[in-house]
Amino acid sequence: MCRVGLTFHEIKNLKISNIPAHEVFTVKINKDSGYFTFEAISDNASIKFNAKFISLKDPSVYINGPDDYYFK
What is the domain range of residue 33? Predict the structure, then answer.
């Protein structure tokens, strides 16, 4: 499994709903009118905001073990 970090700048319209400790989210990033819209949604929670700038961070690699409940 690989994880990539994202950095957002000039965030506005932040909405967070019912963030659980461990849940899989589906992420969508779109650009409209000079701002990126970030939306992460799971069965029970969501995060949504607009950001002027977005950048990628270095990836890191994880290998799942038999007791690893963070990744499926």
Answer: 2-58
